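Hey, quick one: can you model this chain's 3D structure?
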Amino acid sequence: MRLTVNGRNHDVDAASDTALLYVLRNDLELNGPKYGCGLGECGACAVLIDGVAARSCVIPIEGCEGRNVVTLEGLGTREHPDPVQDAFIREQAAQCGYCLNGMIITTKALLTRNPHPSEHEVLEALRYNLCRCGAHIEIVRAAMRAAGHALEARD
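Sure thing. Here's the predicted structure for all 155 residues.
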């Protein structure tokens, strides 16, 4: 099976019903998407498929053939991060960082379809991405920064 991931074609030798997450992490050695719940509920495994955020732990690779898959590694580089990645860095929007992949991917998908979302729209987009550390305020601030907004400091 041939997959296009981060702009490169990869021939993958795996069963067609193998979850995309396992191929990304185990075969392609991409560690951006994380294994969280394995049920598609937490968002840690999110990737972009044709520009839409998707939970890679529940998507079989057969559903990705002929589509463009982008992982966290495909957004930018250490030297030239994507504007969303840069905003998360500037806002220090992480504690443990486990949820960060999903938060960044979901924010990127939101900004692709709506370049200037309101804070409410950001909160709605991120509501199904779980963060156990409590970095939600910084994450929302980072998403708003990436959208070109600045939030006032809150007490």
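One thing worth noting: The CA atoms of residues 94 and 122 lie 17 Å apart.
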